[in-house]
Amino acid sequence: MAISRNTKESQVSELVELLQNAKLTAAAQYAGLTVTELQELRKAARENNVTIKVVKNRLLRVAMTQVDTYKNADASNFTGQLLYAISADDEVMPAKILDEFAKDHTQMQLIGGLSNEGNVLSQDEIKALAGLPGKNDLIAQTIAQLLSPVHDVTNALSGNLHALLDGVEAKATA
Predict the structure, then answer these.
(1) Is pLDDT larger for residue 12 or for residue 148?
(2) Residues 6+ apart with CB under 8 A from 22
(3) Is 32 helix (H, G, I), strand (E, B) or coil?
(4) Cα of 156 vs its chain's centroid, Å
(5) CA-based max dimension of the chain
(6) pLDDT (tens digit per residue) in 12-49
(7) Whose CA is closest to 125, among 114, 137, 139, 136?
(8) What are the pLDDT digits (tens) for 48-67?
(9) 48-67: b (≥16 Cβ within 10 Å) or e
(10) DSSP letter string over 60-121?
(11) Number of other residues whose CB lies within 10 A of the CB of residue 167
């Protein structure tokens, strides 16, 4: 069934808005997935502030030409039935969501993506991004590293204080 011109224009304008704010766009082939499985994917994506879009690849290319960042990007490797995961909040989460889902659903396969610098990412690059910790995990790891010396000093001082108190107690009871 053909899509009307108005529907195409609204899809392109929505994609333009999403791409302008996107930190990462990941693309995956989804042929063979059921509607229920796609709903499960959309739910997981929503929980992580990722938008899932299923649009014609030609409409994505038209939208890319309207965004300065992606005007010169070559999206010729985006072919077949694709869905796009887009996030304006996290540079890794779209790839992680699709990769995690693909582990349980072999019909889905990551094929590439778009970075916020306007680069087209290959399948290997998008899979490497999927293997990175998420933004919140990285923040937590950084804070733990920053607090590590503080905890070490506190533990050392409390150990000396306990030894001093044990010595005073031993003298007092002797």
Answers:
(1) 12
(2) 86, 87, 88, 114, 116
(3) coil
(4) 40
(5) 96
(6) 899 999 899 899 999 999 988 999 999 999 999 999 99
(7) 114
(8) 999 999 988 899 899 998 98
(9) bebbbbebebebbbbbbeeb
(10) HHHHHHTSGGGTT---TT--SSEEEEEESS-SSHHHHHHHHHHHH-TT-EEEEEEETTSPEE
(11) 10
pLDDT of residue 17: 92
Residue 1: the pLDDT is 57
Sign of CA dihedral 27, 33, 37, 38: positive
For 50, residues 6+ apart whose C-beta sits below 8 A from its C-beta are 85, 86, 87, 90, 93, 94, 97
Residues in the chain: 174
Give the span between the Cα atoms of 18 and 13, in whole angstroms.
Answer: 9
Position of tokens 């899979």?
127
Q: Say which DSSP state 23 is in.
A: S
Average pLDDT of span 134-141: 80
As a whole number of angstroms, the distance between CA 99 and CA 95 comes to 6
Q: Which helix or strand (DSSP H or E) is residue 27 part of?
A: strand 24-29
